[in-house]
Specification:
CATH architecture: Roll
Helix content: 25-40%
Strand order of the largest sheet: 2-1-5-3-4
Strand content: 25-35%
CATH class: Alpha Beta
Order of helices and strands: EHEHHEEE
């Protein structure tokens, strides 16, 4: 199954694109997507493990299922003051 992931901030700058397409094997969950992104793009692994994901503008948990052709947003942690 293929999932489109929207990238923001550092992830977008690191890869030079605002979205990527990732293949996820069954059972396709947000957690499996997190692992697939880290494996395909090791330079994002530390960011992805701390990021939130959203499906259809709703925050998702690692155990939430994904459907084929789902669009997911990867929301990186922010810091500042």
């Amino acid at each position: 199954m293929k999932v489109t992931v929207k990238l923001f901030a550092t992830a977008r700058e690191t890869l030079g694109t605002n979205e990527i397409e990732i293949a996820v094997t069954d059972p396709a969950t947000v957690g499996a997507l997190r692992v697939a992104i880290a494996e395909r793009y090791p330079q994002l692994s530390s960011l992805v493990e701390r990021s939130l994901f959203a499906i259809d503008a709703n925050y998702a948990r690692d155990e939430d299922p994904l459907a084929d052709a789902t669009e997911v947003a990867c929301i990186l942690p922010v810091s500042g003051g």
